[in-house]
């Protein structure tokens, strides 16, 4: 998994985000991962939620992936892949920069702004990967205070 590698399918792209989520969990953080891809499937950047590790409330997975992708001339043809439905903050990032498509790995444990994104012209694909759903459900049950802090209910 390196910047510049090409991933042809949504499942392959989601695997990149899932690896990031597991990396975040191993670091003691919240297991949410994301990756930004070019239209042809080239990985531009990936990242994971780093709120705990960096003591930075703004460092969500999508934000981290976006920053790691570096500056792009345009985001219209990019695809943001995230293991969990994007919160309103991350949905705002998608809209602000005109990211054209979002792939969601799990919208069962949390439903963020993905419907709003779709209503505003962003193509949204929901995969609802059973493994990701189970991993997030387990994390929420084991860390309710940290989870509620992350979603703004702490």
TrEMBL record:
CDD domains: nucleoside_deaminase. Gene3D superfamilies: Cytidine Deaminase, domain 2 (3.40.140.10). Its main location: cytoplasm. Signal peptide: none annotated. It is found in: Cytoplasm. Transmembrane segments: none annotated. One of its GO terms (biological process) is pyrimidine-containing compound metabolic process. PROSITE patterns: CYT_DCMP_DEAMINASES_2 (PS51747). Homodimer. Pfam families: dCMP_cyt_deam_1 (PF00383). Its cofactor is Zn(2+). Keywords: Cytoplasm, Hydrolase, Metal-binding, Zinc. Pathway: Pyrimidine metabolism. The lineage of its organism: Bacteria, Bacillati, Actinomycetota, Actinomycetes, Micrococcales. Residues 8-124 form the CMP/dCMP-type deaminase domain. GO terms for cellular component: cytoplasm. InterPro entries: CMP_dCMP_dom, Cytidine_deaminase-like. One of its GO terms (molecular function) is diaminohydroxyphosphoribosylaminopyrimidine deaminase activity. The keyword Hydrolase applies. This is Nucleoside deaminase.
């Amino acid at each position: 998994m390196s910047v510049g590698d090409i991933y042809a399918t949504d499942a392959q792209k989601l695997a990149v985000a899932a690896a990031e989520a597991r990396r975040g969990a191993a670091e003691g953080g919240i297991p949410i991962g994301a990756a930004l891809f070019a239209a042809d499937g080239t990985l531009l950047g990936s990242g994971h939620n780093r709120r705990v590790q960096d003591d930075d409330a703004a460092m969500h997975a999508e934000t981290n992936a976006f920053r790691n992708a570096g500056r792009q001339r345009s985001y219209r043809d990019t695809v943001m892949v995230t293991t969990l439905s994007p919160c309103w903050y991350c949905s705002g990032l998608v809209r602000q920069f005109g990211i054209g498509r979002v792939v969601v790995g799990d919208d069962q444990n949390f439903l963020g702004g993905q419907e709003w994104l779709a209503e505003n012209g962003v193509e949204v694909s929901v995969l609802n990967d059973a493994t990701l759903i189970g991993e997030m459900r387990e994390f929420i049950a084991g860390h309710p205070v940290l989870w509620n802090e992350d979603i703004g209910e702490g």
